[in-house]
Amino acid sequence: MQYQPIIGVETHAELLTNSKMFCGCAVVDSTSAPPNSVVCEICAGLPGTLPVINARAVEFAVRVALALNCAIRPTSIFARKNYFYPDLPKGYQISQYEQPLAVNGWLEIETSQGLRRLRIRRVHLEEDTGKLMHSSPLPAGDSHLGAGGLGVRAESSLVDLNRAGVPLLEIVTEPDLHSAEEVKAYAVALRAILRYLGVNSGDMEKGILRFEPNISVRPSGSSELRTRTELKNLNSFRALERGTLYEIERQIKVWESGGQVTQETRGWDEAKGETVSQRGKEHAHDYRYFPEPDLPPLVLTAEFISQVRAALPELPAAKRARFKAEYGLSAYDAALLVEERAVADYFEQAARHSSLVTPKAIANWMTGELFRLMNESGQGIEEIKVSPENLAALAGLATDNTLNSNTAKAVLAEMFRSGQTPRAIVEAKGLAQVSDNAALEKLVEEVLAANPEQIATYLNGKLTVEQWFFGQVMKQSQGRGNPQVIKTILAKKLAQLKT
Length: 499
Hints:
Elements: E1 3-14, H1 55-67, E2 71-72, E3 75-76, E4 78-82, E5 92-96, E6 102-111, E7 114-127, E8 131-134, E9 144-145, E10 151-152, E11 157-160, E12 167-173, H2 180-197, E13 209-219, E14 229-232, H3 237-256, E15 264-269, E16 274-280, E17 290-291, E18 298-299, H4 302-310, H5 316-327, H6 331-338, H7 341-352, H8 359-377, H9 388-399, H10 405-418, H11 422-429, H12 437-449, H13 452-459, H14 465-476, H15 483-498
Parallel strand pairs: 14-15
Antiparallel strand pairs: 1-12, 1-13, 2-6, 3-18, 4-5, 4-17, 6-7, 7-12, 8-11, 9-10, 13-14, 15-16
């Protein structure tokens, strides 16, 4: 029997605000800040405290909702989502449920099957939880006094509340995805949008951006919605794709064997390459939602929404289309350059600073040698010493034959190291390409005269020796000889030897 995966994705994105969602505590890196160093009475959940909505978080949420083509609700309501977990200090989470901030949006993704439009069910604001840190069991011989004074060995868990109360945006799709490939494509596209908007860093490894697919499978052609599972703890695109694929295959095996899929939350074990059960999956009514009594309705004016809309940047999909139309780039080059907003901005600055080279040439230098140097150094485009103007100047020197390809790459490496202009490096090191026919013809004649055995081999039919001669001439020119001029002269001299 053939099966069709039915997948919806919940995304939790921490917002890049300075302070938390309902209090004035600073937002810090929860992976490096001292535990419980930014906690107050409000985010610690102490009785008698009153939350206040972070206006910046609201603006960021509206940015995202508009970018996802959602309808913004003029009035939305915060609610209490009740459940007990050690990292939830109040015993409930302030979230939105029946009246979320925004609904009914869409996002288009590129897949191997073409363009697909996915429906966005809702976008809403909430607060993040704290974080649990688990220690290993106590060494043999050590004990804690448990109930009744008995000595027991234990595994301890500590709670860090630095993350508790950080503004969190939840984005929920409809169950419109049907493969692990589509799940990854959606995640990549959404992450790019969040980063373009400046509302989230996109750092999945630190848990700042979390994708949680809800997966079920059904017989192909059926319209039923079967029991689903939710995957958590996916901290990379690779884990997201592999975990989704594994869970699809696992559920098919369960149904094929006559079993029943259990509604549950499962985690991804990277080492074993499999999903593992974590806990039963709750239904909405289990959370006993009710309106948050300490917060008034969130009312957004049409003027405010219009101001946020007007300030939106050009988003990745629109920028890709423009790069192809305006600069004549391929879909592949446009996608590479648009993935990061700073990279796209760098490309446009470089392309506009040179009338000697095509935007395609600039793109080639960026996606080839520049990206290679960046990957080797671990630097982002904002950190490198090569300015867009200097990259355009280097491409110009390569285009007008001042530099050959290999020398130009060496110059770029020096620019990357020192930050000097390409012209300064070329002049200081005497790297300008030699295109003078008389000088290069003399070098060719010297190489041929010094290698009579190779000439004999060539004349006996081994034509690949010509490439060896070319290499020797380039070596004699210290890499500065114009390759095309050398090849032309060499071909002419070798042809004369045959007559």
